[in-house]
Design brief:
Elements (H helix, E strand, L loop, with lengths): L1 H4 L10 E4 L3 H7 L9 E3 L2 E4 L5 H9 L7 H10 L20 H7 L7 H16 L2 H10 L6 H12 L3 H14 L17 E7 L8 E8 L3 E8 L3 E5 L19 E8 L2 E8 L3 E6 L6 E2 L8 E2 L7 E4 L7 E17 L5 E5 L10 E4 L4 E15 L2 E5 L2
Parallel strand pairs: 1-3, 8-13, 12-14
Antiparallel strand pairs: 2-3, 4-10, 5-9, 6-8, 6-10, 7-9, 11-14, 13-18, 14-17, 14-18, 15-16, 15-17
Helix pairs in contact: 3-4, 4-6, 5-6, 6-7, 6-9, 7-8
The structure holds zinc ion (ZN).
The site of zinc ion (ZN) has 4 residues, from helix 3 and helix 4.
Length: about 375
């Protein structure tokens, strides 16, 4: 977080963290003001949450001074990935409270809309400019700054007035209402050589954990995992969201996936249980728009079920598998594609092809050697029956 934002941190400084057992213990013993459910004061966090990202951001920024609440709360909200405020669908609309009114009101306990307005403005500043510029603004502003002073500082740091940046922020967030995933994207990247990363559960009381990986070019990615749930997200807030159906929750704990992703940083979110993840970029290309160019992906029995996801919103996506010999009975699911065709070659007019139309969501089929699939739609799955 420090390298992302570039905040000051004295060498010997630590954060004090008072973790309360429950809401009752918090109400009775914390020094936070009602109606707060957590707070930070002078670098000390008080919370019932084991890892309270929002209050930790406040604690990390406390040596940098006390900026107006619009910025202090805005940055804490927008760097808390999956916070309730970020995921509110209403976020797509312009906030009711303008940046200048939020500065004039000052206290978020008086008007909670300061959180929404702050998140909107700070998200824009962090996404569209060097995040270190935000810390320059933060350090330059006293808690009691007027809108005029804030706008002057914005003009000198960003080259735009408060009203200009606000108008841009309001327009910006309509296209992308999510928070900046700075925490989950800050972890060391997972290897892409197929070696299994054995991820032990991190701190007790944290529901989810995340690990990142980096793709330098558009790639097919093969993933095998033992994880109860697994969700894929993009780190770059401007990246198109990856398919959400990559690993359906109803599959067993051991499963594989084949997906095609553009270059960039991504992260996988999973329940905070011991989890194995192995990522690799297959030799050749087992999936693509040109069937004749594919190199079949060898599949061993331990790799079923495998979920294959098409990156296309329309059009044909081809996948080739090396099933081996003798023939093996497999269940092929077609929950989402409009049309799925399995053939022994790239000739999809051959009489040997098997069609699995959407009206027939799954079929047990004998498959042998190399199988070519033509998908028209989002995903398909091959499983042991
Ligand atoms: Zn706060």
């Amino acid at each position: 977080m420090q390298s992302y934002l570039g905040f000051d941190w004295p060498a010997s400084k630590t954060v004090d963290y008072d973790k309360f057992r429950d809401a009752n213990a918090f109400r009775t013993n914390s020094t936070c003001q009602a109606p707060q459910v957590a707070c930070e004061s002078a670098g000390t966090v008080q919370s019932t949450i084991t890892f309270d990202e929002h209050e930790l951001i406040h604690a990390y920024l406390s040596p940098s001074g006390r900026a107006p609440a619009l910025f202090e709360e805005g940055v804490a909200v927008v760097l808390t990935w999956r916070s309730m405020v970020c995921n509110t669908p209403a976020n797509a609309a312009a906030p009711e409270l303008s940046w200048a009114d939020a500065i004039r009101i000052g206290d978020p306990n008086t008007d909670g809309r300061i959180y929404l307005s702050g998140a909107r403005l700070v998200a824009h500043l962090l996404r569209r400019y060097d995040p270190h510029l935000f810390m320059r603004l933060y350090r330059a502003l006293p808690r009691t700054a007027t809108p005029e002073l804030v706008s002057d500082q914005m003009m000198s740091i960003y080259g735009k007035s408060g009203d200009e940046l606000w108008a841009n922020a309001v327009a910006d967030a309509v296209a992308n209402a999510d928070c900046v995933p700075a925490w989950p994207c800050a972890r060391d990247a997972l290897p892409l050589d197929g070696s299994a990363a054995h991820l032990a559960a991190s701190c007790a009381g944290i529901d989810h954990d995340q690990r990142t990986f980096r793709l330098t070019a558009t790639s097919n990615l093969f993933l095998s995992a033992t994880a109860d749930t697994l969700e894929l997200f993009a780190c770059d807030p401007d990246a198109p969201p990856p398919p959400v159906s990559f690993f359906p929750i109803w599959d067993g704990p051991e499963r594989s996936g084949l997906i095609n992703l553009g270059p960039g940083n991504y992260f996988l979110d999973f329940f905070n249980y011991p989890t194995d993840l192995a990522l690799s970029i297959p030799d050749g290309s087992p999936a693509g728009t040109d069937c004749a160019a594919l190199q079949p992906l060898p599949l061993s029995p331990s790799q079923y079920p495998i979920q294959v996801t098409s990156p296309l919103s329309s059009g044909d996506w081809f996948v080739a598998f090396q099933i081996g010999s003798p023939a093996r009975m497999l269940t092929v699911s077609n929950d989402e594609t409009t049309d799925l065709l399995l053939c022994p070659s790239c000739d999809f007019t051959s009489a040997s092809c098997r069609a699995i139309p959407k009206a027939m969501p799954w079929l047990d089929v004998d498959l042998e050697q190399v199988v070519y699939a033509r998908m028209r739609g989002r995903d398909m799955k091959i499983a042991l029956p």
